Amino acid sequence: MQTTFPQLLLNHATQRPADTAMREKEYGIWQAISWHDMAVLVEQLACGLHQAGLRQHDHMMVIGANRPRLYATMLAVQSLGAVPIALYQDAAALECVFPINNAEACFAFAEDQEQVDKLLEIREQCPQLAHIYFDDPRGLRNYDEPGLESLDDLVSQGQTFATQHSSFFKTAVNRVQPDDVAAMFFTSGTTGNPKGVVHTHDSLLNRARAGAEFDKLTHAEDVLAYLPPAWIGQNIFSYAQWLSCGYVVNCPEDASTVSIDLKEIGPTYYFAPPRVFEGMLTSVMIRMEDAGRFKRGMFHYFMDIAKRVGPTLMDGKTVGLADRVLYALGNAMVYGPLRNNLGFSRVRVAYTAGEAIGPDLFSFYRSIGINLKQLYGSTETAVFVCLQPDHEARADTVGVPCKGVEIKVADNGEVLVKSPGLLKGYFKNPEATAEVLTPDGWYHTSDAGFLDAHGHLKIIDRVKDVGRIKGGANDGAMFAPKYVENKLKFFQHIKEVVAYGDGREKVCVMINIDFDAVGNWAERRNLPYAGYTDLAQKPEVYQLIKECVEKVNADLSVDTLLAGSQVSRFLVLHKELDADDGELTRTNKVRRGFIADKYNVLIDALYGGKTSQFIETVVKFEDGRTGSVSATLAIDDAKTFTPVKAAA
């Protein structure tokens, strides 16, 4: 079945006009918008944009948080055969210049004053950007900029046009074809300028339907839309599948209220990158450490039972009567209240993707009765490549190929994919397109992996990142940095890790502590500190982190493939890695090469046997100012363990 985004909107508006399409929390109250009202708003916006000069194949930038009017604007743009391009709302102004100019965009939607200021700041560098429409008027009353107009005015103009030309909108929608370009997503640009990934209506909706069929999604689902609209994962779950299934998408009031809104909505279908699940677990552990002795003891007792029994029950297998009774008791006293506190009391399916999730983190959620599963995909594949069936969710795989997908593994271990959801190409970049798409339709994922005996795909790491230890006792051993990093990030005291070891005789890591978790830990021990940099260098904190590192080393020692990846030395960084400083992508992925160049002096110190190293780092503040942070960082050794296989 081929269709388009605006056609699906009209179908829902015709078949169930009064049903809720979206909810938005405003001033603490949830406001609902029906499918009929959404269709009317989209028609008015489309007519207004047509009057303003937006035409088929034009590009319009969209920058802001999840809001019904942002989604309506995207649908209006698509209704005209034009292409919406979402940008990350937390991106710095200069980061927007290349996408806007590359797309030759003349139109932009900006949610509020912050985003308007950003676009006005770079307007001289983007002279073609003639029309900027803002949604939230607060703070913009006295702005007098050519082409700057409120969305309310655009709606009003469109309403007048729609009244005079009653058939225009439906005619425009019917003109849009499934193989027309529907959206463009810019990659994070870890090694250069971002690339515009071009997708058609069919490539996005085909994958949305495949995922919906796999998990039996219906119009009865509730979803919380809280991730950046510029990320294709958010776009698929809260836009493409929203229109495919017709379920309700809920938009939180603010980034700071997401956890509260999550509990109020109680979504049935949930998606988050591992970082979000890590943050939730950290907050749980902090609260437990602050709890009384009895409550803390009860929590740990029943969590031990959950760890032993929960995953088995989630996989649909049987356990002994005593374990069933204990787990049921734990469910009443600990797991149920915990799920409710997290906002997961109604979750039927929860997915994580974007990067690998630590096995312990994955098991934790499944052990307390949350059907957390992994999926595998990318911007270029419209997300859905592999999905984990219920009762077959494992921490070390990313599932089986879903409907329409073929997978093969190249001689160098790279995973190749053929799918109806593949990108049409990279915008204005045929060379890059030719590098990832073969003439016979296979996409190079750049991920190293293999299909196991059960047909599940295992991803080891990025092909370019998988390396070998060179020299020393582990000469020739495989080194997978992401695997090591994720194992360390399971600990609530560790927020981010960057591991190095390829071509070297040992593995060394740089660690970011979780300021909230470690700060709470320090306060309970009456350990004073004057901020992140001071806390990070406390000897007591180093000992805490050392214990985490050595626990990971003990786990790695029994892994025959990665026993050589045990961490020999580590340091705790004096600042948090930050996307504004170029150290993370906007999707919070580590830019390992950039960090290696920026902190080269620290890497040399780690491998040079030093016990400390002074460093001064330039940082960028939220208001655009720059400053510097300096510290003398301690460098510590960690105990490594003889591989079990070798010992045997």
Shape: globular
Instruction: List the strand order in the largest sheet.
Output: 4-3-5-6-7
Helix content: 25-40%
Integer-rounded radius of gyration: 25 Å
CATH superfamily heading of the largest domain: ANL, N-terminal domain
> Uncertain regions: pLDDT < 50 for 5+ in a row?
none
Count of helical stretches: 22
This entry's quaternary arrangement is: single chain
Summed over residues and divided by their number, the pLDDT gives a mean of: 93
In the CATH hierarchy, the third-tier topology of the largest domain is known as Rossmann fold
Main pleated-sheet profile: 5 strands, parallel
The rounded distance between the terminal residues' Cα atoms is 58 Å
Please identify the structural class as seen in this structure.
alpha/beta
The count of β-strands is 28
CATH architecture tag of the largest domain:
3-Layer(aba) Sandwich
What would CATH call the class of the largest domain? Alpha Beta
Strand content: 15-25%
List the domain count as a whole number.
3
How would you characterize the overall build of this protein?
- The chain contains 22 helices and 28 strands.
- The strands form 7 sheets. A 5-stranded parallel beta sheet has the order 4-3-5-6-7, sandwiched between helices. The protein has a 5-stranded mixed beta sheet with strand order 12-13-14-15-16, sandwiched between helices. The protein has a 5-stranded mixed beta sheet with strand order 24-25-26-28-27, with helices on both faces.
- Strand 1 (20-26) and strand 2 form a beta hairpin.
- The longest helix has 22 residues, at 293-314.
